[in-house]
Design goal:
471 residues, mainly alpha, Growth Hormone, Chain: A, 75% helix, 2% strand, disordered N terminus, MFS
């Protein structure tokens, strides 16, 4: 592993000529509060608009296929931006990228609040996504670059913020949209602009590094991602053909140019690829759980939106408090141990849900809590391992790929499980503990499948990841 040298508050990676300031423990605390708060705004913004789609369609008299672009366009730009911002951070100062991203995010929200027509609203969401993509990217890069002590704890807090905000986002959207109007959802995102002065004050200053962005490579990977997401969400095979074509062109590009957008040696690192795969599979399990559960509760238990929110809320709240516990586990037991524990919790939680399908909905609350607790632990432990695996010159794009695949896990889970739910009924029930019923069998089998997927992610981690020791 790369040796760390510290002197007068500076840390220098031996494989890289640039020095990075190291935050003191007091500085860490306020910076973590800052980036977690901004991150919460971005994550809530991404989830609370789901419940507002019918109201937006009614306001502008849109068909379902038209109004869906409010979410689809945001997803596409956000996914591509999460990788691009990571690469930019390898060259440009984080505080500059962070403040620009928050500014665009808030400006897009302001335009969305005032949008007189649908094209303006769509443009506002695109601007929001362009800026918003920088927020999670920088949230993981700040500790990777500036935190030396307790890095695992910091990643745990950030991951808990994501889990908590993902859970409460739809509830906030439902309350604000119901009591006021969908336009007022943009107010929360506008408030993120208040953080810009603190970003400029508290995030350490850096010099611009030498290096170039391979914009042709960036274009190729952007088209690749856009079409891959298109295939995942629509199952249109033309998207897959275009994605494979641009994948081939991108591989040719990174092999041929001297300064590629992604270093091919990074993609040849078995441990790095296995860690990305482990995180992707684990996050797919959790997004699949969150996607299927409201549909199941509405279908089998006839719960209202508010009642579904109350079922989800305890798990979201408790996952938000897992930051301190997860951080201490990473520091004392090590990230490999925490990865195994996290995926075991997801395995157990999804299996329990599979077993209690068709029962009183409140029996699902403790099952959900078990599974939910795994989410921040997976994110924080894999992020901590990745920062130890990567050289400092690759940490930006390396963490950018980490964020990209975690984001794509959500789209993948929604598309795959949405298609499986179209089956409506399943005569074969694989979990003998579930109450016998064709409809119960469908949901029970889906959650049993998530449990098996979590087990496969444990196997991938154990077989593929070689943990490097930090000096």
């Amino acid at each position: 592993m790369y040796k760390l040298k510290t002197t007068k508050g500076l840390i220098m990676m031996e494989d890289h000529p640039y020095e990075h300031p190291v935050l003191s423990l007091a500085e860490q605390k306020r910076v973590v509060i800052l980036i977690s708060s901004v991150l919460a705004f971005a994550v809530v913004n991404g989830t609370m608009f789901n419940v507002a789609i019918p109201d937006i369609a009614a306001t502008f008299k849109l068909d379902p296929s038209e109004v869906s672009w409010v979410l689809t366009s945001y997803i596409l730009v956000f996914a591509i931006g999460s990788l691009l911002y990571g690469k930019l951070a390898d060259i440009y100062p984080i505080r500059r990228i962070y403040s620009i991203g928050i500014s665009l995010f808030a400006i897009g929200a302001f335009l969305g609040f005032l949008a007189p027509n649908y094209p303006t609203l769509l443009a506002a969401r695109l601007i929001q996504a362009t800026g918003g993509a920088a927020i999670p990217a920088m949230a993981f890069l700040v500790p990777a670059r500036f935190v030396q002590q307790n890095r695992g704890k910091v990643f745990a807090v950030i991951s808990s913020t994501v889990a908590f905000a993902s859970g409460v986002g739809p509830i906030i959207g439902g309350v604000i949209g119901g009591l006021l109007n969908w336009r007022f959802l943009f107010i929360l995102s506008m408030l993120s602009a208040l953080a810009i002065p603190l970003v400029l004050k508290w995030i350490p200053k850096e010099e611009k590094r030498e290096g170039k962005i391979d914009w042709i490579g960036a274009f190729l990977v952007s088209v690749l991602i856009a079409n891959l997401l298109g295939f995942i969400t629509t199952f249109n095979w033309w998207f897959l053909v275009i994605s494979v074509t641009f994948t081939t062109l991108f591989i040719w590009r990174i092999v041929k140019v001297s300064n590629p957008f992604i270093d091919p040696f990074l993609l040849k690192d078995r441990s790095y690829v296995s860690l990305i795969g482990t995180s992707f599979l684990g996050t797919t399990c959790l997004f699949g759980l969150i996607f299927v559960l409201p549909i199941m509760l509405r279908d089998l238990n006839t719960l209202s939106t508010l009642e579904i929110g109350f079922i989800l809320f305890p798990g979201a709240i408790l996952s938000g408090f897992m930051g301190q516990v997860g951080g201490r586990l990473i520091e004392t037991k090590g990230s490999p141990f925490v990865v195994t524990v996290a995926l075991s919790l997801v395995t157990a939680g999804t299996f329990l849900i599979s077993s209690f399908v068709g029962q009183t909905a409140y029996w699902l609350i403790p099952c959900l809590i078990v599974a939910y607790l795994g989410f921040p632990l997976i994110q924080s432990s894999t992020a901590d391992l990745l920062t130890n695996q990567l050289s400092s010159k690759d940490v930006g794009v390396g963490m950018g790929l980490f964020n990209l695949f975690n984001f794509m896990a959500g789209a993948f889970a929604a598309a795959i499980f949405g298609r499986l739910l179209d089956l409506q009924e399943n005569s074969i029930q694989f979990n003998p503990l579930t109450a016998a019923s064709p409809v119960n069998a469908l949901y029970s089998n889906l959650y049993l499948g998530l449990s098996i997927l979590a087990i496969l992610s444990i196997i991938l981690f154990k077989v593929g990841v070689r943990v490097k020791e930090t000096n």
